[in-house]
Amino acid sequence: MIQNKIDYIKRGAFDELYTPKEAVECILPYIPDGVKIIWECTAIENSEIVNVLKANGFEVIRSHLNDGLDFFEYEPQQYDLIITNPPYSLKDQFLKRAFELDKPFMMLLPITTLEGRKRSEMFQKNRVQVLIPSKRFNFIKEKKGSWFQTSWFTWKLHLKNDLNFINV
């Protein structure tokens, strides 16, 4: 649970960047067979994550804090997988909550998320696996772009390797 809702609403500069279509398309082969319902817990209207997943036959439950559906307080009754690009300033809290929900997930986070003793311990304990695209994506915010390396941090997908390089 976030201690201060004001801090949650006034997040960092890289917290409301919109996921490009190609960042979602590259993970489609890694979504496990049998997944039918995906929860995108930070989806704005016209989210590319939602659009790409729906276009590929998945049912998507969309929620966002702006719609009164706080990831730290809300959980859909039924879903198979969480796929999201969470606010980066809250990545530790999002990861902790996702582990607590005990459902498979894929979170798009900066590659630097690998840094830090506490996260390292959390990743080792939970056997997090990472999908690393071969290029940086352009995250759009108000017609301005922001290029930086991100990766999909996954859990309970049972990938062949812990580090998986994706040619994009």
Automatic annotation (TrEMBL):
It comes from Flavobacterium macrobrachii. This is tRNA (Adenine-N(6)-)-methyltransferase. InterPro entries: DNA_methylase_N6_adenine_CS, SAM-dependent_MTases_sf. PROSITE patterns: N6_MTASE. CDD domains: AdoMet_MTases. Transmembrane segments: none annotated. SUPFAM superfamilies: S-adenosyl-L-methionine-dependent methyltransferases.
